[in-house]
Each structure stands twice: as C-alpha cells, then as structure tokens.
Amino acid sequence: MSSEIVIGIDLGGTHVRAGAFTSNGEMLAVQETPIEAARGPEPGLRRIQNLIEAIWNASGAKMLLGIGVGSTGPIDPIHGMINNPFTLPGWENVPISAWLRNAFDVPVALENDADVAALGEYWRGAGQSIQRLYAVTVGTGVGTALILDGQIYRGMDGLHPEGGHVILDPSGPPCYCGAHGCWESLCAGPAIARQARQADLHHSILLEMAGGDVEKIDARLVAEAARLGDPPACAIIDKTAHYFSLGIINVIHSITPEMIVLGGGVMKSADLFLPHLSKAIAAHSIMIPAHRVRIAPAQLGNYAGLYGAAYTIWSTIK
Ligand SMILES: [Zn+2]
After folding, report:
1. pLDDT (tens digit, 0 to 9) for every residue of the chain, 318 residues total?
2. Handedness of CA 115, 120, 121, 122 (dihedral sign)
3. What is this structure's pTM?
4. Distance from Cα 285 to the centre of ligand 1, integer Å
C-alpha cells in the first residue's frame, strides 16, 4: 500500500471522475459521479470535494500530495479558473484551484481536458518518452494537444490552442465556434450522427439498428453499420475519414511530431479511418517524410485524463 498519492480529476459536462495515483503511475482507486452542472458551481465544487475525500479513503493512502484537474474548456490554467458556460452552464469564472487548495491545503493544478489526456498518454500510455507528441481526441468534439518534452504546449496567456476548429472545408456545416467546416463540425460524433439522420435511409440497416427511431442513430451505430457494408453508413464514414485525414495532414505539416495519438469514442472505430489516413499520408509526403510520423491508438481509454491530471502534480514533485 502506497502512503502517498496524487488525485487526478476529470471534469466533463455530465460527470466528474477521480483517480488516486502513486508516483509510478499506479491507479489505486477510481470513482465517478454526475456533476449536475446546471445546479451551479458551488454544489458542483462540493461534489468534487466529496469525491476527492471518498477516493482518498478508498486508496488507503495516508498523504495526499496534490490534486490535478483536467476540465472541459475554456479554462484559465494560470489562475486556476473555469470559465465554461458552454458545457458547464453557469460556471463562469469559477476559482476551482483556490477552492480545492483551501479545502485540502495541497497544490492544485488546472488544465484543459485534451491536454491532460495527451499528458496521460505521455506518462503511462502510447506516447511514453515521445519528445513531440500530438494527440487528437474525437468524441463529442475534436480536442487536440501538443506535449513537448513532457510539457503541455501553451499559447499566449497560457491559452490552449483549439486545433479542432481549424477549417478544413469553408463550404462545410456551421460550428458554434463561428466557422463553417472546421475539423470538429466535420468529424466529431455528432457530425457523423447528423449526416446519418439526414441521409436517405430507405436501403440502409441503420434505422432498424436504431429501433426505427432516427434520433437514436449515433456515431457508434454508423460505424457498426459501415462494418457490415451498409452503403449510406460506408459513404458517411468515407467522407468523415477524408476530412479526418486532411486534419491529420495539416498537423503533420504544421508540427511534424514523432507521434500522433488518436483517442476518444469515435476513434474506437479507428480501424475504419486508418486506410484512408495511410493513403493520404503517402500522398502528402513530398515536403516532409510524413510516413515516418507514427499514428498510434490511445492506450488509456477513458482514464487518460485522470493519469494526465495526476501527472501535472507528480511531474513537479519528482
Ligand atoms: Zn468549430
């Protein structure tokens, strides 16, 4: 039993998850609870505080050395503030780091969720000891992160760059970011589901798979149907894979990392996207040897953010 732990928190729009980690990255305990964000920041912060106490108890550790929080953004990592009325309604200028520091009297770090997921893969996942590691998380959105020499790359004022909103097709669908045809609006789970709901499904198994309710079609069902050779589903996956590949090619040309890790719910079907991606990389290897950039599936699944959040503290202690 380890006597010292760091707790990593993964705060999403619907749930908050916590894990207790030793210095060598062993996860001793993990729990999650609904965040009920709409009830406001204060009840939410109390829930997080209770969750931390529960996970500390469950770990059996004597000492809590710090708390790392990965949160759905926008956030301000320098001042430890969450400012996200988009997926955490009412959470504007919430000083989560100061709150947790007061409650537990330990160092607290706050980072963007895509950044900590990438950092987790660097610490204990697919990207261990990779000097320039880029991560693309495709789920309800498209999150991107760059880990340089084991550190989160930051833009001005500590800002998290939003690679998921680079524009791939100006004639594409509108996004809440104000652009048309950004990576997220073309490739995230809701984009895949939307295309399927709008498609002519007369000769498709999708409707039957969704129990006859077009609203129940989601990205996972589209991937399953494509695997069975369903023509509309295959067409949607092909189109998505085309745009996804453009996004990756742009990353390779802009950053030229040693590795790009692919994570998130949609990338559980990465096998459907990789053939397109390989072809695109082969076709765009003129300016740089793009084929030498390793494309790897994420290894830590839903826990990547917990690992990375804990590492934000452990990396300052070791
Ligand atoms: Zn966008």
Report:
1. 579 999 999 999 889 999 999 999 999 999 999 999 889 999 999 999 999 999 999 999 999 999 999 998 889 999 999 998 888 989 999 999 999 999 999 999 999 999 999 999 999 999 999 999 999 999 989 999 999 999 999 999 889 999 999 999 999 999 999 999 999 999 999 999 999 999 999 889 999 999 999 999 999 999 999 999 999 999 999 999 999 999 999 999 999 999 999 999 999 999 999 999 999 999 998 999 999 999 999 999 999 999 999 999 999 996
2. positive
3. 0.93
4. 27
Residue at token pair 């390989």: 278
C-alpha 183 to ligand 1 mean position (Å): 7
Q: How far is the CA of 43 from the centre of ligand 1 (A)?
A: 31
In the chain, the domains with their CATH numbers are 4-123+302-317 (3.30.420.40), 129-298 (3.30.420.40)
Instruction: Identify whether 170 is preceded by a cis peptide bond (ω within 30 of 0).
Output: no
Distance, CA 104 to ligand 1 centroid (Å)?
A: 37
What separation in Å is there between the alpha carbon of 163 and the centre of ligand 1?
9
Tell me how far the alpha carbon of residue 55 lies from the centroid of ligand 1, in angstroms: 36
Cα 117 from Cα 302, distance rounded (Å): 9
